[in-house]
């Protein structure tokens, strides 16, 4: 079960720091430190849905499927022009 937060160097792909999701504040502090050094980083933390399905025994394949479904759902809202809080609709809704 992957319930870890990782800080990854964008340039090399190396994992610079890893900790349990329960210690995410520590990861944010480390990320700020690495950015202070001038590193371009990615902070990867499991989403709430991912954490839930992993706790129920999901495999990496299940997680990939869930992420794909979530991406499709978000894209459909954008394509249907119904908007969201980040990308409001361009047309007026009735």
In DSSP terms, counting alpha (H) and pi (I) runs of 4 or more, how many helices? 3
N to C succession of SSEs:
EEHEHH
Strand order of the largest sheet: 2-1-3
Unreliable residue stretches: none
Q: In one word, what is the shape?
A: extended
List keywords for this structure.
single chain; 94 residues; alpha+beta; 3-stranded antiparallel β-sheet; 44% helix
Structure notes:
With 94 residues, the protein is α+β, with helices and mostly antiparallel strands. It has one domain (4-79). Helices cover 44% and strands 17% of the residues. Strands 2-1-3 form a 3-stranded antiparallel β-sheet, covered by helices on one side. A hairpin with a 5-residue loop joins strand 1 and strand 2 (15-20). The N and C termini lie far apart (45 Å).
Write the layout of secondary structure elements.
Layout: E1 4-9, E2 15-20, H1 24-36, E3 41-44, H2 48-55, H3 60-79
Antiparallel strand pairs: 1-2, 1-3
Helix pairs in contact: 2-3
Give a quick rundown of the structure:
It is built from three helices and three strands. It has 94 residues and is α+β, with helices and mostly antiparallel strands.
